[in-house]
Amino acid sequence: MKERYTINPFPDLTLTDGDRTSLEDLANAYIMTNLDLCMKFMDSGRKVDPRRWKPLKQKKGLKIYSERPDSVGTATADEATGAGLPTILCVGTKEGKLDDLMFGIISEDLETMRMKASYADSFSAAAVLDGVVMPSLEDPFQSLVVKWMELDIPFNSTGLIKNRDYIYLEGIGIVKNAAGERFGYSLLHSVNFPQTHALPNRVRGNISFIAYWRQINNNTMEMYATGIIDPVDDGLVRKLVLPVVATLFLGSLDYVFCGQMRKLSYMLERRYEESKTRGAPNKKNACVTCSAPITGRRLGDFGKSNRTCKLCFGHVCHACKIVRKLSFVDPDLQMTQRKVTFCTACMSSVTSLNAIDIARAKLLAIKNHQGVHSSGATGDSSSSNLSDLSYSSQGV
């Protein structure tokens, strides 16, 4: 699936200044309107009306519901409804830090899309068409991008059912409510342009999703998400597409892990650059975690390096070593995955690092590599006040 993230399948989409302004306004209105609905749900005791919502899927602390087709009339005037179209509600809690989640979910280009897909369930195929607002040193977790995606529908291989694809605006960022609480958000909303023509063997559908996350204690977030999908079919496809969309919502459980793995990858790159200049330090032949002596290499071990932490270069015994499969994108945009060994101390230290700082450091490294110098930003400015809309006309 990860190999299906591809280049733009359409002619170049060149957005005008007017296009960008319209897309920013659309995103701002959508974010703030649905944040009000999110707050009303949370402030009213987080009650899900069983007359309106039917349980669909559940995983860990998240529950997903689909709107009952005959219950549209039970929604109040200020509640979102699909007006007969398939509608999803996802609520509950998940472990982790909000900033780690934001670092894991943001995917403003092909490289970061492939990186996210390697750690979390995602779309069947996708591509970046154009950027409206890109991550910056001031707002490293903010992006607004036009994308294309394809969803695999069950029984597509029979030829009787065609996959659905979508042209959509994806917005990632952080806003504050009236009480000053930080909410991470992710929105997907269908858009269309003359260049984004229909593709062979696919049916163009429409979607409108948004999710919010709020930190409620040191290592727990609560989630509220809702979405409407138009599969352009009132029969079998309508029933088949709901579980597919529900799986996408449950994929958000992996975003924190993705953010932590991206932090590990970044620190590995730094250590590698440092070791090229300074060389790897000599370490005692003892496990850096439990101090157990590391015996000599066994026959066949020559050349293997899976017994040392790749961050501190210290030896780790078999019982103490931590192995993670990390994803790397080569210069030719090919995704590779490698198993990497860490010690407990380095793993804990890196995963505890501030994801905002790592995101800014990566952006600064890219700017320096491109020869674009920036003075950087000070303080935590990744959030915006309720009165300051998420996107302003800053372009890319």
What features would you describe in this structure?
The protein folds into two domains: 2-259, Alpha-D-Glucose-1,6-Bisphosphate, Chain A, domain 4 (2-Layer Sandwich); 261-369, no CATH class. A hairpin with a 5-residue loop joins strand 6 and strand 7 (182-190). With 396 residues, the chain is an alpha+beta fold. The strands form two sheets. Strands 1, 2, 3, 4, 5, 6, 7, 8, 9 and 10 form a ten-stranded mixed sheet that branches. Strands 11-12 form a two-stranded antiparallel ribbon. The chain has seven helices and twelve strands. The longest helix is centred in the first third of the chain and has 27 residues, at 17-43. The protein is globular and about 70 Å long. 27% of the residues lie in helices and 27% in strands.
Q: Could you state the order of secondary-structure elements as H and E?
A: HEEEHHEEEEEEEHHEEHH
Helix content: 25-40%
The radius of gyration over CA amounts to 23 Å
Named CATH topology of the largest domain = Alpha-D-Glucose-1,6-Bisphosphate, Chain A, domain 4
CATH architecture descriptor of the largest domain: 2-Layer Sandwich
- Overall shape: globular
Structural class: alpha+beta
CATH superfamily of the largest domain: START domain
Number of domains: 2
**Quaternary structure type:** single chain
Number of helices: 7
> How large a portion of the residues is in β-strands, by DSSP E?
25-35%
Q: How many individual β-strands? A: 12
- Amino- and carboxy-terminal Cα gap: 29 Å
Which residue ranges are poorly predicted, with pLDDT under 50 across at least 5 consecutive positions?
299-303, 372-388
Largest sheet: 10 strands, mixed
CATH top level label of the largest domain: Alpha Beta
Rounded average pLDDT: 85
Protein name: FYVE-type domain-containing protein
Region (Disordered): 373-396
Organism: Phytophthora ramorum (Sudden oak death agent)
Biased composition (Low complexity): 374-396
